[in-house]
Amino acid sequence: MSQAIGEGPVPSELRLSADKTTLRVSFEDGLEAEFPAELLRVESPSAEVQGHSPAERKLVPGKRLVTILSIEPVGNYAVRLVFSDGHHTGIYSWVYLDELARNKDEVWRAYLDRLQAAGLSRDLA
Fold first, then answer.
1. How large is the average pLDDT for residues 98-106?
2. What pTM, to 2 d.p., does this model score?
3. Phi-psi region at 17: left, alpha or beta (left = phi > 0; alpha = psi -120 to 50)
């Protein structure tokens, strides 16, 4: 489904930190969020991570030190992030980034809880 111009969230700025570990997103409505590269990687909207149904969702451990190598525009509705571990298939729509910004703390806590329950670590094994 395409997003019509003027509908939904629109970022006014995307800024990658000098060390490539944090992406700052500012939206036209005033919402601002800083995303650790690790969070963006483990919550990638790609089929590789999300699967094709909730039952297929993958838990991605060992990404504490991942960085964002580049940000590539996808039309006028999203960006593709290229990560230092080679992952590059997630398309981060403005809607997805807006939702993630609004729920970042809960998403992060749920990720940490899933890691702990699985006996996995944010660090490489």
1. 96
2. 0.91
3. beta
